[in-house]
Amino acid sequence: MQESFGAYIPFVDHLGFEMVFFDDGQSELRYTPEPEHLNSFNVTHGGATMTLLDVTMATAARSVDKGMGAVTIEMKTSFMQPARGALTGKGRLIHRTRNMAFTEGTVYDAEGNVCAHATGTFKLVSRAKTPEISTD
């Protein structure tokens, strides 16, 4: 169970994202896709790449107030080239109001090539108590 994101996020735990840091308007995550995260071209599925961007931007949004939650309102993604192998997501908080955060994120492959870029808008919300998840 991964809680380095400031909250337990089951889907992020399932994908195996690793938090490098999130502080002062910046974030960095690492992700090594498993075979089941690939598409029919044997590269990282666009949905997994978008999830990495979403979490990277959300953590950048939360990095100045880690007690807040961030809910995705809007996200635009551009794919530049196939995402192969280990990936790094880097996020940046561009502007923040009391209730909104405007961010950008980029995914790089192991050679430092840009694979995808996104912008995102997040609503900042008070973090509610995490509900219990039944495993029965």
Structural class: alpha+beta
Under the CATH scheme, the architecture is: Roll
Helix content: 10-25%
The largest sheet, given as strand count, sense and whether it forms a barrel, is: 6 strands, antiparallel
CATH fourth-tier homologous superfamily: Hotdog Thioesterase
Distinct helical segment count: 2
Structure, explained:
This protein has 136 residues and is α+β, with helices and mostly antiparallel strands. The chain has a single domain (10-126), classed as Hotdog Thioesterase (Thiol Ester Dehydrase, Chain A). The protein has helices spanning 10-15, 46-62, and strands at residues 18-23, 26-31, 68-79, 87-96, 100-108, 114-126. Strand 4 (87-96) and strand 5 form a beta hairpin. The longest helix is centred in the middle third of the chain and has 17 residues, at 46-62. The chain is globular.
Topology record:
Layout: H1 10-15, E1 18-23, E2 26-31, H2 46-62, E3 68-79, E4 87-96, E5 100-108, E6 114-126
Question: Keyphrases for this structure?
Answer:
globular; 6 strands
Short description:
By secondary structure, this protein is an alpha+beta fold. It has two helices and six strands; from the N terminus they run H-E-E-H-E-E-E-E. A six-stranded antiparallel β-sheet has the order 1-2-4-5-6-3, with helices on one face.
